[in-house]
Amino acid sequence: MIDRFSWRTYDLRSLLPENWRTSFLRLAKGATAKTLLPHSVTSREGDPNLRIPVLTVNGIVLRDLLPWLYRLYRGLFKDLAQLGTPELVFCAEKDLYGAVLNVQCGTAMRYECHVD
Asked: Is the residue at 2 inside a domain?
């Protein structure tokens, strides 16, 4: 049996605090620069020598500074994801890797092609 790809959208803006954009921008300004080495089993990058520069805010920082987003990630967002699949949906066990913020500046930055 071939699984079909499905796409769902939800307008959840009414659940976000009034200053959510400002909060994200402030958080993004504190992002940490690092270089991804795409060697994990979830990576879909083809070049083993590839180095990808990224800016990121880890899940612990995000949890502590945007607790409303963390609650949505562990609650409603997970529940909505579950509606799209018969397989059980789980959040990351470690907050460090859960809801994170990746920041791209300009056209040279991107994130690793991967599957979750």
From this structure: no
